[in-house]
Amino acid sequence: MKKFLSSMVLAGFFIIGVSSQTMFADSVESPSWFKEISVEEAVKTNIDEFVQGYASKSSLRNVVSNEYYFISNNGEPLDKNELSVLTDNSVEQLPNEDGKISNVIALGKSSINGVVKTDYYFSEMEFNEMESFKENAIKVATNSQKSEYARTLTNTVTPMSDAPNYIDTYSWAIYDDINPSAIGGYLNSTVEYYKQGKAISGGKTVSVWDMKSFNQTEPINGYQTRQASSRHSVEAYVPDEKMISYGPTGDVGSSTVEVSLTGGVPTLTWAFNSTNITISDQSSMSQGFGKWTLNYVLGTTNAKSPYTYAPGIRAINFSGEMKFQHNHFGKFYKNLSAEATESTPLVVKRLTDL
């Protein structure tokens, strides 16, 4: 089965015109494996076509590409034509509760285990100073280089597919409510999609999908994370799709959280740390969504530093494409006059299926 991830891989290959030198003067120094490339150059070199060809031929396991490609217009949003050329068009945005849709400021390209990965960097601003975005992208890419998302949380039961079929990363800059030029933090979400096989439901053959999400709050500029929430859903696609399991379940106040996705195929289980964080489960099995709200204790490590929580859902599909929706909320606090809050637009992921 052809597998895709949201990142990009060009391991052992050098594209003419791509340089490891920064495009942004007096900006953050790049690691040698972090390559910056303009949108024009990425389009000219058919970057996705090469990466997909490499990934489909790769038989290596537990291998992360040596290079990460950061593609931007140097602060200007990518337009629809550029996104159409540089992505597989499986991701779209729907407006948030305020009717907003974010701009795509940059893309990241890499691969893990032969799976092509595309990272989306969002901002509500029309023009962006790229230094902060680049710093965040290096952190996202470093996580991929270390295989953090794929390997640090160990599955206690091996599912039918032990490596994701698709991976995307989405990153939103959250701006101060009063000072729109100040970023209080980032919401980063790496989502793994596993097509686990087929089962019988109501006398019909269905496909079974697991969605495992690594959602990270990353405060910067002296802010701390006060609250976050994530919603992962198939609600809009009922009755063609149905959520059959999710986790974590129930309100959580312990330091370790366990997640188990069950039903139809072997169980997928993992755990994550939640020290000094309370997690409220607001999910609805009948409506088809998992939702969790996290409250942080100011002054603690998880409030002051990047923190990753890892919920998931299992769903079945009766016909056509498999589709998921994701959206997040973040509140970053500095003082009574400086707070950054935002609810992200809905991200829709469409996956070829039945």
Can you put this structure into words, describing what you see?
There is one protein chain. The chain starts with a strand and ends with a strand. The longest helix is centred in the middle third of the chain and has 16 residues, at 130-145. The chain has two domains: 1-152, no CATH class; 189-354, Distorted Sandwich (Leukocidin-like), CATH 2.70.240.10. Helix content is 14%, strand content 44%. The strands form three sheets. Strands 1, 2, 3, 5, 6, 7, 8, 9, 11, 16 and 17 form an eleven-stranded mixed beta sheet that branches. Strands 4, 10, 14, 15, 18, 19 and 20 form a seven-stranded antiparallel beta sheet that branches. A two-stranded antiparallel ribbon has the order 12-13. With 354 residues, it is mainly beta. A hairpin with a 2-residue loop joins β18 and β19 (338-343).
Key terms for this structure?
Leukocidin-like, globular, 2 domains, 7-stranded antiparallel sheet, 11-stranded mixed sheet, single chain, 354 residues
Q: Please work out how many helical segments DSSP would assign.
A: 6
CATH topology of the largest domain: Leukocidin-like
In the CATH hierarchy, what is the superfamily of the largest domain? Leukocidin/porin MspA
Radius of gyration: 19 Å
Q: Tell me the overall shape.
A: globular
Measured between the Cα atoms of the first and last residue, the distance is 14 Å
Number of DSSP strand runs: 20
Instruction: Using the coordinates above, name the CATH class of the largest domain.
Output: Mainly Beta
Would you identify the regions where 5 or more consecutive residues have pLDDT less than 50? 1-26, 58-64, 147-158
Overall number of structural domains: 2
Order of helices and strands: EEHHEHEEEHHEEEEEEEEEHEEEEE
Averaged pLDDT, please? 83
Based on the coordinates given, report the CATH architecture of the largest domain.
Answer: Distorted Sandwich
**Helix fraction by DSSP (H/I, runs of at least 4):** 10-25%
Strand content: 35-45%
Based on secondary structure, the structural category is mainly beta
